[in-house]
Amino acid sequence: MELNKNFDHIQAEEKWYAHAIEKNYFSSTPDDREPYTIVMPPPNVTGVLHMGHCLNNTIQDVLIRRARMEGKNACWVPGTDHASIATEAKVVQMLREKGIQKASLSRDEFLKYAWEWKEKYGGIILQQLKKLGCSLDWNRTTFTMDPDYYNSVIGVFIDLYNKGSIYRGKRMINWDPKAKTALSDEEVIRKETKQKLYHLKYYIVNEGKTTSDYITIATVRPETIMGDSAVCVHPDDERYKHLHGKQVVVPLINRSIPVITDEYVTMDFGSGALKVTPAHDINDYQLGQKHQLEIIDILNEDGTLNETAQIFVGEDRFVARKKIVQELETHGYLLKTEDYTSEVGYSERTDVVAEPRLSLQWWVDMKKIAAPALEVVLNEEINFYPPKFKNLYRHWMENIKDWCISRQLWWGHRIPAWYDDQGNYVVAANETEALAQYREQFGRNVESGQLKQDEDCLDTWFSSWLWPFEVFNGLNNPGNKDLAYYYPTNTLVTAPEIIFFWVARMIMAGIEFQNQIPFKEVYFTGIVRDKQGRKMSKSLGNSPDLLELIERYGADACRFGILIASPAGNDLLWDESSNEQGRNFNNKIWNALKLVKMWEQRTTHTGASTGNEHFAVNWFGNRLEEVKDEVATLMKQFRLSEALKTIYSLIWDDFCSWYLEWVKPGMDQPIEAVVYERTIDYFEELLQLLHPFMPFITEEAYHLLRNRQETDDLTIKIYKTVQKTDPAVLQLGTLLKEVISTLRDTKNKHQIKPKDAIQLAIETQHEQHYNQIESILKKQIHIETISYTKAAVPQSITVVIQKDKFYLIPKHEVDNSAQKAQLEKDLEYLKGFLSSVEKKLNNERFIQNAKPEVVEAEKRKKEDAETKIRTIEESLAALIV
RNA sequence: GGGAGCAUAGCUCAGUUGGUUCAGAGCAUCUGCCUUACAAGCAGAGGGUCCGCGGUUCGAACCCGUGUGCUCCCA
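The joint structure predicted for all components is written out below.
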């Protein structure tokens, strides 16, 4: 059969993915086999595939495919997250482009648009994952706002509320003035930001009159001075002792506020005097609570100043800042301005500066549910890879704060709280239940329509924390067959960025609602960065178009590219060139396939073998088993990148560069049938080993190697168990490689062309070893005859390998000065080596303290070195003669 | 300010209870080759103060201390 010049990845990808779907290879139902389950971290429903997904999902697919080929019942569940803030922001923007304001729509009208949007764009990302080759069980695709899932989320809210773990409270929260919603602490990104520190005069009041004395206050937020409730100094600060208990005047609005003292103040920062604005700063808020200060909120929900501010009403906070600085300067309140850099919180979703804001929100009391979730990680019921994240996790869990779960959004799970017009409320799944409960609780009769449901939605993570069991309908259909079989799941693969958002909370939810951990191990991937180490992001434009890369290089090459660059647990610097390496690897496999296929018609049962092919076959069989074992160990430790490198090298170096050359018949010569068959067997096993990493080319090549039955597919082919290896055969293989490399190099150094034939004499005590590999040596180094000798051969080039001497006899006389230099260099090295060993052995304290086996090893080294030195000296002597 | 991690070849990283003269791999670079599957290839080569300093030890890339630099998390 004639094969194409190159592997056609596009047709192979389409063909084999469709075939697997048709045969239901990726779908799983409970049976007698051991399950292996992964739930995919659900991407945003409106998202598109980026390099982070590529890494994450490739890793999961490798794990799932390998488990499947190990004979486990592998189940990988896909799905999407409704991503309340992100999706709502996109819908709002889409409406704005159509000229529709969200405020002009009713909740139902808005949600209709949102669902339309979701139907249109939702799930694109899942289609893209198919292109990458992900072997997901599509029948189980779940969305966090599916009806059942929705009900479970509401049920969980009610359950926690009834247990007293959910409460409503007025707290300082992070507010996104653009999205007009509360944010959890984790949704606020701190960034170093250049600001100005303004030094302002606050005049001191004495006996009811404003004096010309003042105290200097340093602030980066002059627009909030109208919200000041006090000025605070350190009680021990000598500079301000005379002001304790006095009043000062807020500039521009002339409101008097007290001077208070608290040790919280840092004396040497700014002027050592702090303005306290409890409504607009978290620390000030706490200070205000302690000193019972008035809370003066001067901002609207969109970040503009409100009536309470008195001045610049309606102006945006940053515009107001500029204007107020001008005003302060005009009136002589501004003493100086300094550059100042500090960390400012930005909304993760909208990238505007988050505003600390006091508001009434729903909270989860985390202390109680966090404790067991910490325990299971500390006692290693759940293992983290790499384990360094365990510390991070513990630190966070021990200092956990309550979770703000309400969001002022419409897209999401609506909070099941129902209010009367006095603000009394009940928590219930629907209006009917709410009415009944209200009647019972408040003893008043209410009619339908009289209770108003909370307008707000729940934080997205309040639904995704149920993911590992809700994809199996764990709460809707408790104890169902799927849940019992697949839960707890095995491995969670995710980015360390969401260890607190998601991983920690899933562990809590699993224990709280299923009494079982959600997964047994968590593998944290690195963050994908570009060659300069920058995080890939849309705004930098350094995130490549993955689909285009797949089209250009092939899915296998992209999978290879991202995995080979991905050391366990570290960030990876990704560059397109790694895809080239993957594509080149495809090419190598394809060419090896072409070579082997060329032999198919040339097999014979008689007389083709020189005998040495059998050694090659035996050696590669052992080598294969050895590497299979190594790979298994690496995979258990989640060292996927190293496992792939190991397989890469086995195929490229051991199989292609060595083995195939060793068994390759001469031009138009036949190949012994048994050698051919074994070669095909090895090729199959190599493809199988590589399949989880590069599923398409391996499946294609597998089918081209032999004619297959209908369902004889690599995707579902179970691995054979690893066989024991024969160390003697492996050692001889290593010696053979070394001899070939060294003699090739020697020819090269003596200007003997690779094709120029030579004669070789070997001085060895193990002639029988060399008998097994003679013909391979001849072929690989272009040797005419090999003989054995007991003494140095004159007019030859001498090389020492291990303990054996090789005499190369070239056709033409050669200058042996290069050789002499080489031997002298080797001799010098060995003498140095010997003296270092002797130094150790002559050191009494070494003999006393070192372990006996170490001392033994040193003695052996000494003997070896002495033997080699003697051999080289003899060679040198022969050379001079 | 508190906590964590990292520092090995030009780049990305291995280096498994301290024991070969141990300093390694891949990529990149350079040299020679269109050798009967593969130039997306083959055969070779060069390249390092294992961040600095001090200590423990017979022996340190590895353990301890310290300095410097970088990254991340939390306030």
